[in-house]
Amino acid sequence: MQQWLADPPFFGGPGQGTRQIVELFVAFGLTALIGLEREVQGKSAGLRTQTIVGTASALILLVSKYGFLDVVTSDLVVVDPSRVAAQIVSGIGFLGAGIIIFRRGSVHGLTTAAAVWESAAIGMAAGAGLLLLACTVTAMHFIIILGFMPVARRLASRLGGAVRLHITYEDGRGVLRQILEASSRRNWQLTELAADPAGEPLGAPDGHVGVQVTLVGSGILRAPMVLADIDGVSGVRQLDDDPD
Questions:
Q1: What predicted TM-score, i.e. pTM, was given to this entire model?
Q2: Residue limits of the MgtC/SapB/SrpB/YhiD N-terminal domain (predicted)?
């Protein structure tokens, strides 16, 4: 048994050294950071999904680089590692397509699908030994997620933009008409209006209903405060661009 465990083809062959273990752990750590960020934000495809995708991509690329050395013969068998890498990209594309959905007139899940694709790319870079590139893209991820949103909100408040809101209000009092009039007075254009299904939102007081609206215009970031002050409105919640 000890002789079998120590047999180089099983545990000591090419592609199973310290360098490859380090590359796997780099892929594991970097994609876990991305997954942790999504977990904290309450998004889907969080810690476990991102880490599994990134680590598995690194392993597949390592298999592509080293897994066929025992059958490679000079001038007879040639292995192209890029073929397996291309299949990773195709596979992640199918996974991302399953995440993206169309609901209530808008697309959901684009950022989630992009994050999964990004984790696969980071894992592939780590598996290929491009550790600096893998670390750089991970840093860029946090710049995109944590840095771009405040900038976008500042631009929206000054130049104009769009905001998606879920509004809960008392039914039968003409509150929706007041919401539309308040928006019209401030030149906010309504581009989406969808009523909640019967029984939603959960936990709303009796006689209250909910709608999802998208408003476009300048100074749009003040919309939640403005609409919340309307008599009969019981709650205004801003929705993320990508709630999934």
A1: 0.61
A2: 24-152
